[in-house]
Amino acid sequence: MIGRHIAYFDRSLKLLEGEVAPPPPGAVVARVTMAGVCGTDAHRLAGEVKGPDEPISLGHESVGVLVELGEGVTADFAGSPICVGDRIAWLPGGGCHRCHACVTLQNENICENIRWPVVSTLPNGAGYRDYATLLDGDIFYRVGDDTPDEAVVALGCALPTALGLMERLGRIAPGQSIVVQGSGPVGLSATLLAAQSSASKVILIGTGEDRLAWGATFGATHIIDIESTTPEQRLAEVLELTDGLGADIVLEGTGFIDAFTEGIAMLAKHGRYVIAGLYAGDKTVPFNPVLLNNRNLEIIGSYFGRASHRREALAIVAKLHKDVNLSAMVTHRFPLDKTEEAINLMASGQAVKVVVVP
Ligand SMILES: [Zn+2]
Ligand SMILES: [Zn+2]
Predict the structure, then answer these.
(1) How confident is the model over 22-44, as pLDDT tens digits?
(2) How much is the pTM?
(3) In the chain, what are the domain boundaries?
(4) How far is the CA of 113 from the centre of ligand 2 (A)?
(5) CA 141–ligand 2 middle distance (angstroms)
(6) What is the DSSP string of 257-322?
(7) Which of 184, 249, 318, 355 is least enclosed, having the fewest CB within 10 Å?
(8) Which residues place a Cβ less than 5 A from the ion ligand 1?
(9) Mean pLDDT computed over 100-121
């Protein structure tokens, strides 16, 4: 079996072709039917993520059909029985399950030995390829036949990221106010989850008519467009919406450093700020920690979500897509040989969700 795959090196992408090896024991091979484009890919192409030292594979929001099971594989990562022909969704890579992060913290995403990114010439579970090989320990789950690929990929890695964020945040008390910064997939996913909590207000700050409309669909009670407001106006609006107190919770899902200063200024006393979008880059901002002390503020970092969050995300999508046409979030499709265009479009913020269909 011959398959094509995208190799990334030195800020450019190449389309290569090669033999797809049969899966080793414990592994599976899936034909990729759709791969979501994530903002992370754009950050990588822009050189904001360190490395790699050799060509690697990209694409980490994938859906596909199982074509071959390695010896001993009878179930997905959560124990659901699987066979050839079943649809699965997966995250490439996996933790080592033998380190402090994996075992004690139960968070394989911050495992120091995580198998991601991966060398492009070796069989791997990246999405920008015809056939993905999920090695023993890679996290994949069966997808119900009534959940379309588009719905699975619509919120991609963003929904597990937002689930991780909510876990790091902890309890949302009834009546609390939440500001979500960012109307990309992470901000929209955070809006969706915040709106399902007992918060009284969910104020989405973002841009893009379509993206903001999805924010309203997902339950934002108020929307502030950054294109038509200044930072001062946004702060004034949040204060007005919160009786002059500020927001109890601000969730950052933008990836832009300026959001940090703006978000902290919006916090009420005892406010909590969660950083989920700012995960790469070396820009800094001046910050006076006295504010944390005087106003009893908390700043919480949240890197992605755990393996269980991916499963929870699929469960949310399986239910939600029956009420909301999640598939319509996929606004642009590209073939495998146009992956670079797909990533550039996602980076431009002009699309809601871009996918690659190999
Ligand atoms: Zn991602
Ligand atoms: Zn580990």
Answers:
(1) 999 999 999 999 999 998 898 88
(2) 0.95
(3) 2-155+326-357, 159-301
(4) 5
(5) 20
(6) THHHHHHHHTEEEEEEEEE-S--S--------THHHHHTT-EEEE--S--HHHHHHHHHHHHHHTT
(7) 318
(8) 38, 40, 157
(9) 90
Indicate the SS3 state at residue 203.
Answer: strand
Element (DSSP H or E) covering residue 256:
none
Cβ-based neighbours of 286, under 8 Å, separated by 6 or more: none
Looking at the CA of 157, name the nearest ligand: 1
252 CA from centroid of ligand 2 (Å): 27
pLDDT tens-digit readout, 309-348: 999 999 999 999 999 999 999 999 999 999 999 999 998 8
Contact indicator for 277, 254 with CB cutoff of 8 Å: yes
pLDDT tens readout for residues 257-276: 999 999 999 999 999 999 99
Q: Report the length, in residues, of the chain.
A: 358
Distance CA 183, CA 257 (A): 15
User: Percentage helix, strand, coil, to 5, in the chain?
Assistant: 30, 25, 40
CATH fold of the domain at 159-301: Rossmann fold (3.40.50)
User: What dotted CATH number matches 2-155+326-357?
Assistant: 3.90.180.10
Find the 221 Cα to ligand 2 centroid distance in Å: 40
Distance 306 CA to ligand 2 centre (A): 12
In CATH terms, are 2-155+326-357 and 159-301 the same topology? no
Cβ-contact 82, 319 below 8 angstroms:
no
Tell me what the mean pLDDT of segment 77-93 comes to.
94
Q: Which ligand is nearest to the CA of 106?
A: 2
Gap from CA of 228 to ligand 2 centroid (Å): 45
